[in-house]
Amino acid sequence: MEKYWQQALSLDQYVDVSQLRFENNPDKNDEHQEYYELGLTRVQRTLKTFKVSEDHLRQLEAKNFQGKILVISEPWCGDASATVPAVSKFFAAAGIEVKIFLRDSDTTLIDKYLTNGTQSIPKVLILDQDFSVRNVWGPRPKFGNDLLKKFKDNPDTYPREEFYNDLQVYYAKNRGMDAIEEIINAI
User: Fold this and answer.
1) Which residue(s) pair with 17 in the sheet?
2) Which of 1, 3, 51, 166 could form a disulfide with 131 if both were Cys (CB 3.0 to 4.6 A apart)?
3) Rounded Cα gap, residues 81 and 88, in angstroms
4) Confidence class of residue 120 from pLDDT cuts 50, 70 and 90?
5) Do 70 and 6 meet the contact criterion of CB atoms below 8 Å apart?
């Protein structure tokens, strides 16, 4: 785990990678190219509107957590664009180091934390000081998972476009608060 940590990025570096991929992607065959601009817009919105909750800080402080947070993500991911900046800002405000590991740079990490057999992101790895994994959260808050289940159970009456819209509206209104609360509870 320490090897992955050393290869991981700060939030600023992660945003820089996203900007680079949007403006001048070195991978001309990147199947996610169309999502970088949207992801950047969402990340910037979250960074601008996110406010650290004093209640969440108190809940975290009561846990006496001394570890680190490693997020497995990619800048093109819609779930990540809402969650990663909020999680990064919150834990940084709490004095806990956060790094972001690019899933596609080495899939051996995400392959250890599959969601129903898929490499779904973001995944938040809650690490102890010795880099052992205490718990894992992700790829989205319970409300988002409930929306996904509704879509999968009823794609004819709840089409993909409606699901995606509802999920992004939720993320925009919630501003990462549910994800942070669930992560704190997982510590």
Assistant:
1) none
2) 1
3) 11
4) very high
5) no
